[in-house]
Amino acid sequence: MAVGGFAGDSSKAPSASPKLSISLACLASKASRSITHQQDRAPHFSLIATPFTSPSYPGSQTYTLSIDYHFFAGLRTSKEKPTMAMVLDAFASYIADTIKQMAADEVGMLLGVTGEIDSLHDKLESLRDYLADAERKRITDRTVQGWVTKLKGVMYSPPGGDPLLFCLRHPMFAHDIGSRIRKLNKRLDDICLLGAAFSFIKLETYQDYRTGRPSAADRKTDPVLERSAVVGEKIEEDTRALVEELTKDNDGIMVVAIVGVGGIGKTTLAKKVFNHEEIQHKFEKTMWLSVTQDFSDVELLRLAITTADGKLPATEDKSMLVPALLNAVRNQKFLLVLDDMWSDRAWTSLLNAPFSHGAPGSRIVITTRNETVAPGMRAREPYHRIDKLGPEDAWTLLRKQAVSGEADGLDIDLLTDSGLQVVAKCDGLPLAVKVMGGLLRQKGKHRHDWEMVLNDSIWSASEMPEELNYAVYLSYEDLPPCIKQCFLQYSLLPKGGSFSRADIIGMWISEGFIHGSSDDLEELGIKYYIELILRNLIEPGIQYIDDPVLNMHDVVRSFAQFAARDEAVAVQSGENESKVSESEGLDWSSLEAQKALRALICVGHVNIKPGDSLVDFPCLRTLILHIYSANFALLVESLHELKHLRYLSIRNYDISCLPENIGKMKFLQYISVGGCQQFVELPHSIVNLGKLWSLDFRGTRINGIPRGFCALKNLRRLRGFPVQVDGDWCSLEELGPVGQLRDLYLSGLQNASATSSASKARLSEKAHLTNLYLQCSSVLWVDGLIKDEEGVSEQRQIKEVFDGLCPPPSLDYLSMSGYFGRQLPRWMTSTLLASSLRCLRTLWMEDLTYCTQLPAGLC
Length: 859
What we know:
This protein is an alpha/beta fold. 35% of the residues lie in helices and 12% in strands.
């Protein structure tokens, strides 16, 4: 049994087998807290439209704007240079397949352009076999990079400017579509003639990822695997030494520094120390803060308050946030880890004052690659410097990453000689060894495959910047094109942003990176996500039970952004802090010239003035606005202008509703207003969004939903659904016809009036449901006492409601909070549990005040 809100030790992976783990939050103990659910919660203070490249300026506050153009959406920058960051062979394959399908559907015949469509399809078919070689060579060859950019410009920017595929699907454009395709064919011919000079070779063609070569993801069923820890006696010695130093009796507040180059294992060592049993028992509070290079003062303070279990003010005012943090740590003996410090500014100008009020014996641990940070924070000398791995430890780590099963281990031991040569090329860097292990895991256990990796020409590439890692390059080149694009897109998200797996996959689908039928897109996205984890290109960060948040190491991120170089427009608000203050932020009007943006992510403070709108971004497919602005609601009023929008995520303290005309946005698939504390109402027209897959309004004040909600039959994820009663109608009835749900969060169940209302939700019939959250608030407490007869009746009624919410056998995760019945629902009794919840792996129960006993046989 796991106690404390996370299934098992969250520093370790859950088992791949469907074992049931139970968390009782009401019994949570401090000792169960773990690093993986505390780091990286602060959003990166930046403005970004994926994908981007941006130089790093230590100590600067950077806003980055960049552009993602594909699907034939046209763009010219101020230099008339097309900018886009799609993996070319993946895109060409998608376009060719789409055009082929259009021809099969007789769209071309309808428009009178059948011959031109066939010609375009044939050109793309002949091109795509060679584009993998072009994509590989462009990384280190600027001439090839220029040719690839021109080809992308032709493909993304057809004559006329409107997205070509959109025109093909809409006969209203029939009057000139033939002319557009003819001109596009001619431009492709010209570009192909130029490409002949490069003598591209036909590499092994990647088959469709759904049916092609076995992937790393195919070999494991669980996406979060504990294979990432650095091994060897050295790290164990370092861990013991640091734990001993931190737990010595010393009345002062001491700073301890872990110093080393990127990818050497500083964070791994800090995690081992943080999760050490002696540390967890020694300190009253243990806190972890990841300090991004261009952090926001406000977000870092808010994160610190939350991590310290303090009371978070609903304000951006630092003069109120600092005292709130001080109160949270006052007279508390704490351990604070500040991970990835690039300068000492976060400490000296922001955190030092409040944390200096902690109890004697408190400790601060910092990890940094910058030699000047430790003395700037007056860290105790000597600093703990991380050494490179020796050959034996490096081979042990590589083997651990490459082995996919016990049987493989014996075969891989026969490859020790090749493995030692591989780790020698990694120069003792744990991250490089892990990435190579992920790659070799994909290759399997054949000597020939290992030697091909060992002898790959990438190891001797000379045109790549010295600071970039060749192991990451090798792993990237081995990815199927469809996953390459997802990897590049992930690297462009704000570092430290709390984007969950569901968020990431939703963006991939919205951007068109995942191809398949509508029924399997999410499953494919999960497969891509697992593949990137198994290759150690991304790694689990915050470990929420049902939806982990991922990290990407700076070394990996640097390569990914290099791979997308020259394909973005970057906007700098200033090269140092003296030029722009945090309170000034970035002006929204400075973005309006970028009229062909496809994806825009704004995180931080943005100045919005009356008259600013979204009308200048008609091509947007993904829009994420997690920003602070007094006039934010004015901006949202123009949402309906974004006719191509698929993904919408808003987080703002002032917004109270979405515009009523949002129902006109027929392509919307994902909407999230979670955390908008003043949000009170969903527009009635939302029931017209028939393509909607995901709707999240947790953490809002919505207490009702519009009638007709049952029309949203394609919903897969519904979080924050309020139970509302109006006469004979209950909102639970609206869920009955919504049969595709995978993830459902019901709140306010105390409002349900009868079992009949609950049973009309037909949860037991939802064969795909895997995650279920049942939340209610007790109505029984009056000055700490239970109302007698009325209380008994209400307890009986809430049990009947829960009885009617019997989930299907497919359920994997169940959360119950605030339930005030005296007995658990009938479907949770010991006699029915095995049949009704046979797939359940995680059970979270919180504030079940009147239930005194779990069903027999549950544990």
